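#struct-queue
[09:14] JT: dropping the first one here, sequence first, then the structure tokens:
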Amino acid sequence: MPDLTRFAWLSVAAAVATIALKVWAWSITGSVGLLSDAAESVVNLIAALVALWALTAASKPATDDHQFGHSKAEYFSAGVEGAMIFIAAAFIVVTALPRLFEPQPLEAVGIGLAISMAASALNGVVGLVLVRAGQKYRSMALEADGKHLWTDVITSIGVLVGIGLVWVTGWLWLDALTALAVGVNILFTGGKLVRESVAGLLDKSMEKEDLADLRTILKGYRDANGGEINFHELRTRESGRQLFVEFHYLVPGKWDVSFAHDLLEEVETDIRDRFPGVHISSHMEPIEDERAYGDVHL
């Protein structure tokens, strides 16, 4: 498997740079909206560090104590990231509420907005890189981190619009309202990440489109052999970047074991071509034996 920690280090570097820019923007404007934006970037940094740990742990080979590897570490990364978002949202609300009732004037708004725009552009580029890498290498940690950065970009755009309106209209209360909107928005992101993390830890099956492709491969071999062979008890699960596929392979009892095994090797090769790195567990049974169908309800 490719080393994905370089993407995590990219995320860490981007988070540090973004925090510096957004804190600078907040310090020269005094905007609580920009402060809330900076708070979310602190969450980005923590999430990037957790993702770095998770990717390092997930890349470790299987051991006697963990015979299926350590790939589920990536789900902990997404779960921690979701939890950190909740904390950031609480901080934003606590900071913004007093300003809603006692608005404060803003300073150097134009410069602050320009700095914040630069930080958002950086987040957007890095977020796109992480999402694409996560989808390419089936890494939930990278994809979650990238999606979080894109959420940060969308949040920042909202903040920029809100602060811009304050600058144009002089309605200072819009600053606090913008910050509160940021808090509510990122709560939805945190909830989604936690749900996805829990689904992964509970051994979620592969995606419906992938499962359909897998069934097509098996059906193709069944049809090509005139129905003499069949497959049942197909089960799949995702564990971080790894896919696991299990099935029973039914063949005529009169077949030579070597011949049946050679055909099974062809089936498994086609599955691996479609799903690189997949772990396959198959069990061969005589198609005429009623005992072969004892667990078909599973």
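[09:21] JT: and here's the second one, same format:
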Amino acid sequence: MTGMTSALIAATAALAAASVPSTTELTVPGPQGAIAGTLVDPGGKGPAIVIIPGSGPTDRDGDNPLGVKAASYRLLAAALAARGIATLRADKRGLFGSKAAMADPSAVTIADYAADAHAWAGLVAARSGRPCVWLLGHSEGGLIALAAAQDPTGLCGIILVSAPGRPLGMVLREQFKANPANAPILTAALGMIDSLEAGRPVDPATLPPPLGQLFPTAVQPFMIDLFAHDPAKLAASVRLPILIVQGERDIQIGVYDAQALAAAAPAARLVLLPGVNHVLKSVATDDRAANLATYGDPALPIAPAVIDAVAAFVAEKR
């Protein structure tokens, strides 16, 4: 009996250990040094996803120093691991754990970020023996996923979450107009977007605060490159499975963006999620302040419908 009890205890311990995902810090080469990321792998041969972050100084967890502390990507990785799905999330070139990759994190293009996504997908596939890896792009990361998917090598498909369906200049105009607090700077903001779309940098000293600080000279070449891409046109040329996930309480990217992507890629699957906002949290009302409050709440879990949509799609396409 004692031997049987010991064997049972050992088996139970082994099962518990096997159910805990492994977390591994990895790097891929950058232009001047390493780009750093975190692989969360529950083991087995389930799907693997590279999570591509949104705009600005957003880190691998989905946070940034501009007030976003929702930990959306970290929570997403944990929830997907519970479904048997591995994830790799990384800091952008030149930022946070990837500071060594380049001295100026603004000196990048969408093509550079797309190359990094491919590098991570290749590394995850090589480490695990998986034949292909998914790309999940959140917000601006959706545009990067679309750009990367123009070369389907090593990719299972792409997942576009809260992703723009129009050129980013159009989206940015709408965001400025949607916030009544922007009224004093709205004319200058719209004029700045017009200039950058035309490929003309703007002297930050001519812009009212805080526009000059938000769009310094160093970042404007990236903005010019960013505005030149049309997500819908890119979606139309992707020859991989596409999932489009859009929260209906997203105050940054609208349902019409998701619908534009779906119209451009008729084979894509569109999933609209009531009550889900831009940082993938559940919001009970249309109140803007309540919505924004979730951006600073890492204790609030990812909306279960997001996990369900992603997990079901990648499992179905295996």
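[09:30] RK: nice, looked through the second one.
[09:31] RK: The beta strands are 22-29, 34-41, 48-52, 86-90, 133-138, 155-161, 242-247, 269-273.
[09:31] JT: good to know. DSSP finds twelve helices and eight strands in the chain.
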